[in-house]
Design goal:
It contains eight helices and eight strands, in the order βαβαβαβαββαβαβαα. The protein has 221 residues and is an alpha/beta fold. It has a single domain, classed as TIM Barrel, CATH 3.20.20. Bound molecules: D-xylitol-5-phosphate and zinc ion. Pathway: Carbohydrate degradation.
Length: 221
């Protein structure tokens, strides 16, 4: 069954001095989810923000907070992110030895559980936790920074993840280098949730994010 297309702007490319207003605006302009990139300077070579910022943003919108944890270890912080207002909590497969435990913890906190795979990690790594998942995030760049170039070899992985999902109610998300010129290929391969930072926040038209988000939707195949 085909799942609805979700546009998830990554606020990594938003105005950090005016985040609340930027989040509100991107949701008003048609975003389905808000993608929050949490980086620890250890699992990835960049640092962003933690639960207090998520909590502060929560007051600005009711939209789904799609939280991408690029932190290791993740387990000690899952409860704090759940309490701060994350709706989907995605951990990296590479971030710890006990993925099944992490996913169970997230679901026990009443949240949707996601797992992210770096470009070099095979889809087979999540075969045995497929029924413990609500979302699979295929990284289409190496995590850490916005504005990188899409890695074409990840397309095959999107297809494999799509086949693994089958009829299960699992969203298939892609993150990194997603723009009108790559949306066709990733949606054709089976992705239904599109994370985009620079292609949305870097492409405002007269202060509106409507046109760049429509351009992403229009490129679906
Ligand atoms: C990268 C982050 C992405 C990033 C995407 O590690 O996970 O969410 O913001 O940025 P773009 O869309 O500019 O490639
Ligand atoms: Zn992300």
């Amino acid at each position: 069954m085909k799942r609805p297309l979700r546009i998830a702007p990554s606020i990594l490319s938003a105005d950090f001095s005016n985040l609340g207003e930027d989040v509100r605006k991107v949701v008003d302009d048609g975003a389905d989810w808000v993608h929050l990139d949490i980086m620890d300077g250890h699992f990835v070579p960049n640092i962003t923000f933690g639960p207090p910022v998520v909590k502060a943003l929560r007051r600005h919108t009711d939209a789904v907070f799609d939280c991408h944890l690029m932190i290791a270890p993740a387990d000690p912080y899952l409860e704090a992110f759940a309490k701060a207002g994350c709706d989907i909590i995605t951990v990296h497969e590479e971030a710890g030895p006990h993925l099944h435990r992490s996913l169970q913890t997230i679901r026990n906190l009443g949240k949707k559980a996601g797992v992210a795979l770096n470009p070099a990690t095979p889809v087979s790594m999540i075969e045995h936790v497929i029924d413990d998942l609500d979302l699979i995030l295929i990284m289409t760049v190496n995590p850490g920074f916005g504005g990188q170039k899409f890695i074409p070899a990840t397309l095959r992985k999107i297809e494999q993840a799509h086949a693994l999902i089958g009829d299960r109610p699992i969203d298939l998300e892609v993150d990194g280098g997603i723009a009108p010129d790559t949306v066709g290929a990733v949606t054709k391969a089976g992705a239904n949730a599109l994370v985009a930072g620079s292609a949305i926040f870097g492409k405002a038209e007269q202060g509106s994010y409507r046109a760049p988000m429509e351009a992403l939707r229009a490129a679906e195949e």
